[in-house]
Write a structure and sequence with these properties.
CATH class of the largest domain: Alpha Beta
CATH architecture of the largest domain: Alpha-Beta Complex
Number of domains: 2
Shape: globular
Number of helices: 12
Strand content: 15-25%
Number of strands: 15
Structural class: alpha/beta
Radius of gyration: 20 Å
CATH topology of the largest domain: Quinone Oxidoreductase, Chain A, domain 1
């Protein structure tokens, strides 16, 4: 089969690799029908995730059709259409028994495209398949369902829930990429007074406005002054970091009010200075986290009932064989207007070009 393979820092290739095989009775093999690219994949290519070795098949977000199951798999049958979760869960270790699946100690957690081969391929092996897949209703399209693999649960759990967004809050989301936009969508479920999006790319700020941000700001617009002007000088109740750079984390600490909450979602590949000399007396809560995906069934229900309006999150479509071009588009959002880039076996709808929206 063909797959997108990490070939070392800054290098990737769509190439032939061996077909995946069942290696554990709890495994399943899926035919990948729809797959997407994550900002974390770009961090891997930049060398920010050293655990990923050359030769690894990338990707941790896919919708597929079950092709084969191991002898111990009980809830799936060949032909089932499923979301492949970005998090695998053994279900029995101390963390899984508490619902903290991202910290699984028996070979789960974030493994796909990280410690084992991922899903940016024609076929993929999914460990712990009973607990790491979700069957899909026929009327939920692949393009919507693939967002349940990572960005919706990540933004909701690590951003909105960790940040304890509540009615009346002022919420700032730094980074209006796919995860930041999903944080805006899911923060709205809690009726904050206002949501402020900060990003350098105008197409992404337009998308943030369309998806529910009340105010959009570039770093050059003096975000601190704007946030203070709408909060009586106090700052934001919640700041969600959805980029993963020292500068964006530092901006979070300047925008937060006393007793506020900073929820870090971004993947950091460089050390960040924590200015405790400024923060220690402000009662600020800082949370970090890897998604656990405990919220995936709830989010699937909201998608199914149309309580989450995700229209516009996917901007570009490609066939699987154009993975290299898809990466180029996704990695240059300022030029392309790319938000979520989806690849699939099925015919794709027309491309939406955010640069002329």
């Amino acid at each position: 089969m063909r797959a997108l393979v990490y070939a070392g820092r800054g290098r990737r290739t769509w190439t032939e690799v061996p077909d995946p095989a069942i290696t554990d009775p709890r495994d399943a093999i899926i035919q990948v029908d729809t797959v997407t690219i994550c900002g974390t994949d770009l961090h891997i290519l930049a060398g920010d995730v050293p655990e990923v070795r050359p030769g690894r098949v990338l990707g941790h977000e896919a919708v597929g059709t079950v092709a084969e199951i191991g002898a111990a798999v009980t809830s799936l049958t060949p032909g089932d259409r499923v979301v492949a979760s970005c998090i695998s869960a053994c279900g029995t270790c101390a963390y899984c028994r508490r619902g903290i699946y991202g910290q699984c100690r028996q070979g789960g957690g974030w493994t796909l495209g990280h410690l084992i081969d991922g899903v940016q391929a024609e076929f993929a092996r999914l460990p712990f398949a009973d607990l790491s897949t979700y069957k899909l209703p026929a009327h939920v399209p692949d393009e919507a369902a693939v967002l349940l693999a990572d960005i919706l649960p990540t933004s909701y759990e690590v951003g909105v829930l960790n940040g304890r967004v509540k009615p009346g809050d002022t919420v700032v989301v730094i980074g209006a990429g796919p995860v930041g936009l999903a944080a805006i969508l899911t923060a709205r479920l809690f009726s904050p007074t206002r949501i402020i999006a900060v990003d350098k790319a105008e197409p992404r700020l337009r998308a943030a406005k369309r998806l529910g941000a009340d105010i959009t700001v570039t770093p050059e617009d003096d975000p601190l002054e704007i946030v203070r002007s709408v909060t009586g000088g106090l700052g934001a109740d919640v700041v969600i970091e959805a980029v993963g750079t020292p500068a964006t984390f530092d901006l979070c600490t300047t925008l937060i009010r006393p007793a506020g909450r900073i929820a870090n979602v971004g993947v950091h590949g460089a050390p960040v200075t924590l200015h405790l000399e400024q923060l220690w007396a402000k009662n600020v809560t800082i949370t970090t986290g890897l998604v656990d995906t405990f919220s995936t069934p709830t989010l699937l229900q909201m998608l199914e009932s149309r309580r989450l309006d995700i229209d516009g999150l996917v901007t570009h479509h490609f066939p699987l064989e154009e993975f290299e071009q898809a990466y180029d588009v996704f990695a240059d959002p300022g030029r392309t207007g790319a938000l979520k880039v989806v690849l699939g076996r099925r015919p794709a709808p027309p491309v939406v070009d955010e640069t002329v929206a």
